[in-house]
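Team,

Forwarding the record for the chain on the shared tracking sheet. I've put the sequence and predicted structure together so nobody has to dig through attachments.
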Amino acid sequence: MTGILGSGAADADGPRKLAFVDTGNTGRSMSAEALADKIIAKQKLPIVVISRAVDLNPFNVVPEANAETILKRRGIDVSQHRAVQITENDVRHADVILVMTETHKEKLLALFPDARNKVFTLSQYATGEYAEIADAYGKPMPVYVAMIGDLDKYVPLALQKILAQ
């Protein structure tokens, strides 16, 4: 696979390309994408974002209800989101790929070893310190509130950093 994924360098005049990845793309990564999109639109940042799954469950592709509810309260509609498995093409085109846990990073690098220079955990990329973004799937609303709170902390910092690179 050497060389297939390219250098990951951004086009000089194009937007920066950022991918958020978690297990199923129905909670954490989908929420990170939605929060990032809102910031990008408000600040008119030259960044485009996607979210993907590292282990998509084809029988579970709609947003998690609690995440959807929290985002809806903020004026963000994710009801049309459908989970998507990450592909080689996604990896090749992304400048930075941010995962929610070290396990996601390991799975992603097992699939795409050439991506090692552009895959980071969200917390480490944003702050330099590792903190797992907890999986709220199937848990009560307070766990989702905490998960979105973590994303609120790290996503804006990650957007600032990708622009500075």
